[in-house]
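Chapter summary example.
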Amino acid sequence: MPTSPYMYASDLIEVLKKKHAAGTYKSLVFYLEACESGSIFEGLLPEGLNIYATTAANAEESSWGTYCPGENPSPPPEYETCLADLYSVAWMEDSDIHNLQTETLHQQYELVKERTANGNSIYGSHVMQYGDIGLSKNSLFLYLGSNPANENFTFMGRNSLVPPSKAVNQRDADLIHFWDKFRKAPQGSPRKVEAQKQVLEAMSHRMHIDDSVKLVGKLLFGMKKGPEVLTSVRPAGQPLVDDWDCLKTLVRTFETYCGSLSQYGMKHMRSFANFCNAGIHREQMAEASAQACTNIPANPWSSLHSGFSA
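The structure predicted for these 310 residues follows.
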């Protein structure tokens, strides 16, 4: 059975607990940029470890890429990919202009939360905070140092950072890259043919993963209940899954029969977690996956041995 390239919340939390027990830090600040990044800490990161964590998104939504081709601002033409994430840009650009000896973690969190939510726009996510929230009263200087050029900067509560005109769902950032390559390549050139191939392979993989997970859900729970189990979200404060070893096992089992989830397919982790919470075991998952995946697209995205799967 293939080894998993994914980082699971339970493993990260265990490492943080060991680091705390070993006294390898006094206090720790953790910025996490990822889709559904809140699920890494939700219901899992306890108080008392002297860790303050913020995440780009809550436990059930995508994060967003920015500085992408075609946006305003857009990256230089030689770059055919999104250069940043809304959340990461927000805290790094805030750190660039403020006096970090006086700005606190909480002040930055509020500004980053506002900017990443992007007002009433559909392009944005909910920045969250976890762990020892009391640490947020500390100045950023304790964790990031400071730029002497900003020492005379007076902190203002209003957000001086202008959000971008639009953003890209992180799940689609690779498609933006391939499409921009295709758009710029000369007609009839090998580069255009290769870019078109990459777009079609990525789309084929996405459809395969989406359809396979939906079919597995229906095979396990029936036509009516299957879709409900796939999309069920636990109440805030509860971890994604009760048995993390079960989640790892079901993911490995699915990939054995259906190919790599890849970065895109990680959007279905909640569905696999819901299978575990409903009592599904490896044998049942293997049978359903074998029935659902009679064919796997022959491309790097679906391969368990390709760099794409990581």
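To summarize the output: The longest strand covers residues 28-32.
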